[in-house]
Amino acid sequence: MKVAVVTGASSGIGRSAAVEIARRGSGVVLTYSSNGQGAKEAVREIEQLGGTAVALPLDIADTSGFPAFREDVTGVLRETFGRDSFDQLVNNAGFAGMAMIEDTTEQSFDRLTDGLFKGPFFLTQTLLPLLADGGAIVNVSSNSALPHVTEPGYSVYASAKGALIVLSRYMAKEFGARGIRVNSVSPGATRTRFADDAFARNPEIVPELARQFALGRVGEPDDIGLAVAALVSEEGRWITGQNIEVSGGHHL
């Protein structure tokens, strides 16, 4: 059995990716930060599919906790899956933040760059000895990093997500000798708990936003989760070093 590690999988895109990866036959180690209940529900959903999942806490913005997290993953791999390695890594955990450049504080800048770029960089480095040759990584970026979706207020968030796209390409180059594929996906606006449940709190914005998409609606978590699962699975075996916008034709 293959095993995946999916960060930030207690809800939204991460949870969907974890479920879809499990549906393809992989065991899943999923992480959560504040939403422990959501993580339990994700584990239960995977178990109802006949799969196996374990939830572990992780703060993606705190690199000091990464060595202990690697030990936790090592223990779960041995005890639950009878493995000393895993095959698929999805760096999904993150959080939103917006401010105009003139209003951006150094504290908010550091929070975003720590969580969205530094965290995935060093988590991947930390877990790399456990990632099996021939494995796959998907880094979840955002189409806010792409030229046609430049919106005021997202300079730091989008820049960090853009850095993740570039990092994915370099990871693909460096890890390719081990047969490890690395890609990034750039979702457009997606109906998740992201940004304090913005869509749920402001449903009136959805129809207006939907008009920006060629397919006439905003994204759903499964739209992205399916793409992530395909990329880390056999369907994506000849795709590496790519950034794939998964946005239903946002601003096409």
From TrEMBL:
Keywords: Oxidoreductase. Its EC number is 1.1.1.-. The keyword Oxidoreductase applies. It comes from the Bacteria. This is SDR family NAD(P)-dependent oxidoreductase. SUPFAM superfamilies: NAD(P)-binding Rossmann-fold domains (SSF51735). It holds the Pfam family adh_short_C2. Belongs to the short-chain dehydrogenases/reductases (SDR) family. GO terms for molecular function: oxidoreductase activity. InterPro entries: NAD(P)-bd_dom_sf, SDR_fam. The keyword Oxidoreductase applies.
